[in-house]
Write a structure and sequence with these properties.
Blueprint: H1 4-38, H2 45-68, E1 72-73, E2 79-81, H3 91-108, H4 121-140, H5 151-172
Antiparallel strand pairs: 1-2
Length: 173
């Protein structure tokens, strides 16, 4: 049986998914009406391709968010887990950010095609995350051999660490 927190999370997730769905449908609707119907004289194959690409981004990201937010029920229909918290961050937050950026760029591009350049924010931010979280620590963290630690010194250090850990356990009891 789920607690009140899980039930509350299910309701919050349902509201967030409804908001995202309305945002996606509104952005696609505004773009289709404005760009493809009202400004049909300036319409080209790139505008149709842009609608297709943003719709693909919406589909992938919304599917990721909705699958994470899906609650788990037992065989009797009782709530076991309320799904992931959509406000926690991580990949789910990135999916939501992509939906928001896509919606803004899509609607703003009705005013000028230059707004499509804002999509460069996405790979730029991805490159920044790749550099700060993976590449920079991997490249600039010195290895044990570079620190001058010999195998004998490493063994002695590990032995001392184990001894200190045993002392901590004694004091805790």
């Amino acid at each position: 049986m789920a607690n009140a927190g899980a039930k509350k999370r299910v309701e919050e997730n349902r509201k967030r998914l409804l908001l995202l769905k309305r945002l996606i449908l509104s952005a696609n609707g505004i773009y289709a009406v404005m760009r493809l119907m009202l400004f049909s004289s300036s319409r080209s194959w790139t505008h149709i391709l842009a609608l297709f690409m943003t719709s693909l981004i919406y589909a992938v990201c919304f599917q990721g968010v909705s699958s994470a937010a899906e609650p788990v029920y037992d065989e009797h229909g009782e709530l076991m887990d309320g799904g992931a918290d959509l406000n926690m961050g991580g990949i789910i937050s990135t999916y939501q950010d992509l939906i928001y950026v896509s919606a803004f760029v899509q609607v703003a591009s009705c005013l000028s095609d230059k707004f499509w350049w804002l999509f460069l924010v996405v790979p730029t931010y991805g490159g920044y995350l790749l550099w700060t979280n993976i590449l920079q620590p991997w490249i600039f963290t010195p290895r044990q051999e570079e620190l001058g630690e010999t195998p004998a010194a490493r063994k002695q250090r590990e032995k001392l660490e184990k001894k200190q850990a045993r002392k901590k356990v004694k004091y805790i009891r």
